[in-house]
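Write out the 3D structure for:
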Amino acid sequence: MSIGTLLLALVVGSLVGYYTALHRIQEIGDAIIFSGLAVLLVSIGTQLGGDEQILQDLNTIGGSALVLCLGSIIGSVGCVYLLITATSIGDPESASADGTVTRPDTPSELDAGGFDWKVTGLIVVSLTAGLGLSAVGLPEHVITRIVSISDYALLALLFGVGITVGGDTEAVSHIVRIGWGVLLIPVAVAVGSILGGVLLGAVIGMPVTHAAAVAAGFGWYSYAGVVVFDLGGVELGTIAFLANLFREIVTFLVLPAVAKYLGGVTSIAPGGATTMDVTLPLIQRVSGERFVIPALINGLVLSVAATVLVPAILGI
């Protein structure tokens, strides 16, 4: 699905949220997001469990892919957190008098400790359901149909995010407060992802250029897998595909905790390029509408960067 189509869904949703006078428009947007997120996660689980090649690769080189995935996430989170600590980039409304980072109010249902168990539960249950569907041996055409529905679910997700953003008058003013610094977020994510991937890649004996190229996929597994496969061979291409696929899945699992303990801006880091589509609704849910536009910009910049960096690094 083209970036233009995804952006159109987001823009249309924003206009609906902005011009609709319904006092429960935020709740409607949340319901659309939850429904679309559930369908998308079931689809991811079904694809992961139903692809025999992926399952075979998990037994052979999946460990290397997981190590690079974790390195990219840890590195990107660390760099973005250092960025907001050293600069004025962040949410002035989310810092307490003693300097502790707190997460702004969101529409999520939080427990006393401020953790969004509803979102976390949805993620675990939906992924498990998808893996379960693949395990029962569904016919190929049924799995294909489930996967095809994910495109519409993604559009619904972005439409729902648009509604919540359009209905939040404080979101745009927050972007104005961040200013030019919003462009530093994807730079920090890119540097942290590659640096973290290279460092942990060295631990498992992977060449620097190989680890850097895999990490430079920034979670865009469909692109990274194909390009690295063509330029770096079958094994490295499989690692690139799995590492970036794992990054998307792991992001769903760790993002609520990152948002709670490290703040809304830092919650943009784990998703990499996926913050412009797949993980964008989760950022909205756990961090708030004010972080949607920075996350969208982050995803767009990193997607463009990946198309340049992956082949460039492999060509070194």
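Residues 92-115 have pLDDT under 50 and may be disordered.
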